[in-house]
Amino acid sequence: MRMDSLYDGVGLGIYGIKLHYRAMQQGYYPDECFPRASEANASKYGIFWGSRYWLRDGVLSVLLALIIGSFFYQPVQVEGTSMLPELKDHERIVVSRFAYDFESIQRGDIIVFHYPLDPAESFVKRVIGLPGDWVSVKGGQVFVNGKRLMEPYIQPAYFDHQSYAPVHVPPNHYYVLGDRRNFSNDSRDWGTVPRKYIYGKAVFAYWPLSDLGLLH
Q1: Cβ of 98: how many Cβ atoms within 10 Å?
Q2: Whether pTM exceeds 0.85
């Protein structure tokens, strides 16, 4: 038997343990005690965490934009053809809900409002007469304060040849007409629109994509 060799091995093992113990006491730890990630793996982890933060920030930005957008803007669907050719039936548009909190209503604006005879319904028309104006229609031609109004947005096929007596627009009211004059239920039939019934300005068409763009 070679007992000496066996004893020497045990002794060496004990000696090695003592060496490691002393190294730990001195604050030194051999490399083999702690597995380390390679530079390639570290790079992967960096890309992963960077992408994760980028994705989080992107999602939060989109959600914030949607919340702010829904507060200031309202998507609506056009029902009917009284505003052809600018607005088509079932076309989807964006209405600015607070536009008139920062600017005044102008002649030519396309507005969305509650129908005066039934506020549960909403109409979209073009502003023709402002408070204090006199509006009349002679043979289909619109006159505001005695001057003919130029209306390039009306196509000849939608022209109306009827005449209507002069109307004085009261304070805080607006005279509105549809662009399709021969097929529009508007101020010629039921009078002016009170300012309190106007809740937005039509600013943008987004669907169908072929009609994408600002409204004029």
Answers
A1: 13
A2: no
